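Supplementary Note 2. Why include the ligand at all?

Several targets in our set were suspected to adopt different conformations when bound, so apo predictions alone were not considered sufficient. For every target with a known small-molecule partner we therefore ran a joint prediction. The input for glutamine is given below.
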Amino acid sequence: MVLVGVLALQGDFREHLALLKEKFIPAIEVRSIADLQKCTCLIIPGGESTTIAKLLETSGLAKEIKKRVSKGMPFYGTCAGAILAAKKVAGEKRFRPLGLIDIEIGRNAYGRQVDSFETGLDVKGHGRLNGIFIRAPVIRKIGKEVEVLAEFEGHPVLVCEGNVLVGTFHPETEKNFFMHKMLLGMDM
Ligand code: GLN
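The joint prediction is reproduced in token form.
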């Protein structure tokens, strides 16, 4: 049976849980290794990646997430979750990302004046969707095995590699369920 874990250390985990609940998908908040062990897939939501990174280390979850995801557990990271899932975060010395997907990402890449914006995106297999970017990062480089599912201004904004899906925008804030559906459609 599916049980979606939503990392609930910091950030907009409540929006993901509310959306999953609305669609009758069983989901729990993940704050400990014991919580994670119950889950069949994991979401790391948007928030503040430096804070989440610190809490992932102190809770022991960083190591456990790497282990589960490398064994094939479906994973979806959005915004801060994408930063944490990356192999490399450009110029970041305060924390080491989890390295779940072969991408290099830069934090707060759209500048301060335009902290947040919305734009139409063409998502492979899903048509045109609205993307909400909130102090979003930019995916600067991708590995050979990484598939680009959507782009904006020449940069990938939604990519996947095997069981790992990451996006730099927030479909959950406008109750768009397509990313969660993609996560649930991954082989388990
Ligand atoms: N700016 C945040 C960071 O660098 C990410 C923003 C978000 O998750 N919406 O961690």
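The chain is about 25% helix and 35% strand. The mean pLDDT is 93. Comparable summaries for the other entries are listed in the accompanying table.
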